[in-house]
Amino acid sequence: MKPGLVRVLKFAASFVPLFAFSIVVYIQVLPSYERLVLATANRVLALFTPPTSLERPPDSGWVAYVAAAAATPNSPRRLTAWPEFTRHLVFLSLALLPALLLATPAPWRTRPLLVAFGLVLLWIVHAMTLVVLVRGKLCLLGNPGSFACLWMLRLALASGQISAAVLWGLLTWRWWIPRRALERGAA
Amino acid sequence: MLRLLVERWLIFAGVIGLMAALNEGASEWINHKLALITARVAAGILALGGFEGRADGTLIHSSMCNFEIIGECTGYYPAAILLAAIVAYPCSWKTRLLGIAFGVPAILLINQVRVVSLCWIYDAHRAIFEIAHVLVWQSLILFFTVLIWIIWAVLFVRDDEARTR
C-alpha cells in the first residue's frame, strides 16, 4: 500500500472517534464559549456607528440591538433575531476543527499545540463573524436588496464550514503538501 | 516560499469569495437549480426505497418526512471550498480539472446521502434531528470535502507529477 494512502486512511479512521468525542465536548462548552464570543463581538460592535450589540435571551436565538440613543425608525432598537440553530451553523467549527487537527498526521507533541492555536484563531473568527452578521443586517436595512450586504451575510452564515477548512489548511498544510510541490509552484 | 504561500491563500480566498458572489448574484440559475435537482434525486431515492418519495419543486414529500431543500442544503459551499482548494494547489491544470471533475460530483453525491439519511433520522430519531442536521452532517460533509482534497493532493497530484517528471 502506498505511504500516502496509509496516511489518508489513518487520518480518516482517527477522525471518526475524535469527532464523536468533540461533539460531546462541544455541547458541554458551548454556553460558556458563546458568552465569551458574544462579549468579544460586543466590544467590537460598540466601536461602530451606530453602536450595536448582540445578545442571547434564554431559550431563544441571537437578538441584535441598536444602542437606544442611536435608534431611528429605519434602525429600530431591536434590529433583528436569528433562529436558535444559527448558533450551531456559526459555531460548528468548534466541534469540527479540533477533531481535524488531532487527526492530522503531525507529531503527537505538536497536535495539542495546533488545537490550542486553532481555538484561539477560531475565537477571533467567530467574534468577527458575529460582527459581520450584525453589521450585515444593519447594512441591509439601510440598503434593501444590496448585493454587497447579502454577500457579506451569506459568507458569515457559511463561515462555520469555511473557517474550519481554512484554519485546518492554514495550520496543517505542511503535513500534506510536500515542500517540492510549493517550490515547483514558485518556479 | 512565504510569498508563494500568501499567493496560494489569496487564490483560495478569491475563489471562495467569487463562488459566494456567484451564489448570491445568480442564485436563480445556480443554487435554485441545484436545490431542484437535490430534491428530485432525494425523492427518487426515497421512492426506490419504498418510502413514497416525490418532489414538488424544492419540496420533498415522503412517508418519512416532508422537507424543503433550501440553498444551504445543496452542498454548494463544501463544493466551493473543494474547488477553491484544488485551484489554489500548485500543480498542472490537467490535474486540477481531474480533481474538480471527480471531487465536486462526489460532494454532491454525499450531500444526497445526507438529505436521505436526515429524512430517516427525522422519522426514526426526531429528538436528535436538529443536532444531526445542523451540527453533525454539516461537519461530516466538510470532513468529506477535506478528505477528497487530501486523497487528490496526496495520491493523484503526486502520481501525476511523478509521471511527468
Annotation, overall tally of beta strands of chain B: 3
Strand order within the widest beta sheet of chain A: 1-2-3
Poorly predicted regions of chain B are none
Distance between termini of chain A?
Answer: 31 Å
Polypeptide structure, described:
- The complex is a heterodimer of chains A (187) and B (165).
- Chain A has 6 helices and 3 strands; from the N terminus they run H-E-E-E-H-H-H-H-H.
- The mean pLDDT of chain A is 89.
- Chain A is mainly α.
- In chain A, helix 1 packs antiparallel against helix 3 and helix 4 runs antiparallel to helix 5.
- Chain A has a 3-stranded antiparallel sheet.
- Chain B is mainly α and 165 residues long.
- Chain B has a 3-stranded antiparallel sheet with strand order 1-2-3.
- In chain B, helix 3 packs antiparallel against helix 4, helix 3 runs parallel beside helix 5 and helix 4 runs antiparallel to helix 5.
- Chain B starts with a helix and ends with a helix.
- Chains A and B meet through helix 1, helix 3, helix 5 and helix 6 of A and helix 1, helix 3 and helix 5 of B.
Features:
heterodimer; A: 187 residues; 68% helix; elongated; B: mainly alpha; three-stranded antiparallel beta sheet; 3 strands
Which helices and strands occur, and which strands form pairs?
The complex is a heterodimer of chains A (187) and B (165).
Chain A: H1 3-45, E1 52-55, E2 63-66, E3 78-81, H2 86-91, H3 93-103, H4 110-142, H5 147-172, H6 179-186
Antiparallel strand pairs in A: 1-2, 2-3
Chain B: H1 2-25, H2 31-48, E1 54-56, E2 59-61, E3 66-68, H3 76-88, H4 93-124, H5 129-164
Antiparallel strand pairs in B: 1-2, 2-3
Helix pairs in contact in B: 1-3, 2-4, 3-4, 3-5, 4-5
